[in-house]
Amino acid sequence: MAEPILALKNVTKHFGENTVLDDIDLSVHQGEVIVIVGPSGCGKSTLLRCVNALEPIQGGEIYLNDEKIDIKSKKLANLRQKIGMVFQSYELFPHLTVLENIVLAPTKVQKRKKEEVQQEALALLGRVGLLGKEGSYARQLSGGQKQRVAIVRALCMHPEILLFDEVTAALDPEMVREVLDVMLNLAAQGRTMIIVTHEMQFAKAVADRIIFLDGGKVLEDTKPEVFFEAPKTERARQFLSMFEFNVVKSQVEKVSS
User: Fold this and answer.
1) Of 58, 78, 96, 176, whose CB has the highest number of CB atoms within 10 Å?
2) Please, which residues have CB within 8 angstroms of residue 49's CB and are 6 or more apart in sequence?
3) Domain-embedded: residue 205
4) Which of 136, 158, 180 is the last residue before a domain boundary?
5) Owning domain of residue 147
6) H or E stretch including 226?
7) For 128-161, what is each residue's pLDDT tens digit?
8) Is 89 part of a structural domain of the chain?
9) Are strands 209-214 and 217-222 parallel, antiparallel or unpaired?
10) What order of strands is seen across the sheet that includes strand 33-37?
11) What are the backbone dihedrals phi and psi of residue 158, each rounded to the nearest 5 degrees, phi first?
């Protein structure tokens, strides 16, 4: 098998005395879609932030194409350009139009020609159903539209890997699908992605591998059909049961009886 594009080796992360990531090992290969699931507070988002060096790690090593990601490295800015990250909160500049938001980093950081980036941005906006919105401001967009703009902005940096941190968590239910459809299309194009989500049906549909985190540890690293149909650990079975309507219904009936 080819060398992984991203490798985490014995990664440990603390917040004070609280261990958030505990000896994490993870490899991601070109074109793989990795979905990380687990209960709130288990370290999912922190893991993504460590990959992008937004948080320092206290132990272990992270490599992108055999280059060590070190928060103190002089090469960090260049490495970060190869990692696209889409946040839950969009992070769009309110005083810039959609097109200006997208074009800013490629032209200022990567020194690419503005006209070239604008053409690429418009093409990508068309592919996510937002052509015609390039002159709009963030306040004029729905949550789903803002998130799709954030995805296009990340794509325009030509990243080698995309990180998605619960990008639908702040959206109204009817807007969730439009964002998930874009991500499904990216997966179909062979994009390398790590996705943190609570959308279990989406995870089952898009993932090549499911990583189940709990208490800062990787409890399962397996194919989606194995994880959802025959999870290996009792903790994973408990977690998945919370998404089953019949289980919730029986709990309600017990309380009301």
Assistant:
1) 176
2) 55, 165
3) yes
4) 158
5) 94-158
6) helix 224-229
7) 999 999 999 999 999 999 999 999 999 999 999 9
8) no
9) antiparallel
10) 83-86, 161-165, 193-196, 33-37, 209-214, 217-222
11) 55, 50
